Amino acid sequence: VQLQASGGGLVQDGGSLRLSCVASGGFLSAYSVGWFRQAPGKEREFVAAIKRSAGTTYDQNSVKGRFTISRDNAKNTVYLQMNSLTPEDTAVYYCAARATGDIGASVDLYTYWGQGTLVTVSS
User: Fold this and answer.
1) Distance between CA atoms of 98 and 108, rounded to whole angstroms?
2) What is the 3-state secondary structure (H, E, C) of the chain?
3) What are the tens digits of pLDDT across the range 1-49?
4) Given pLDDT bands bounded at 50, 70 and 90, which one contains residue 85?
5) Which end of the chain is more exposed for a tag (fewer CB within 10 A), N or C?
6) Distance from C-alpha of 3 to C-alpha of 110, rounded to nearest angstrom
């Protein structure tokens, strides 16, 4: 399966963005999906993940309550709604998928990766 992340851009402090991760070459409903981000000079870090069933989500503490992950299997898409953005959220955001029902925070768990979309939050 190939993943395409989009929806990034420049937003002011306190603003919102919705990222999309669209799959091709397979049905995203068969995969658990995670969002990660990587700021300049930093390692890639986990943001959120959603199981195939969409019954459970897992958010990193720094984004919990501000970010929401969801999926629309009919559109083969997983979303990351980001509210109350701060400059500390500036990073390239990646979506990733794994063909199991479990989710986790390690980059090593995910087999398929999108190319990333840049989110810049200005102060």
Assistant:
1) 10
2) CEEEEECCEEEECCCCEEEEEEEECCCHHHCEEEEEEECCCCCCEEEEEECCCCCCEEECCCCECCEEEEEEHHHCEEEEEECCCCHHHCEEEEEEEECCCCCCCCHHHCCEECCCEEEEEEC
3) 999 999 999 999 999 999 999 999 999 999 999 999 999 999 999 999 9
4) very high
5) C
6) 12
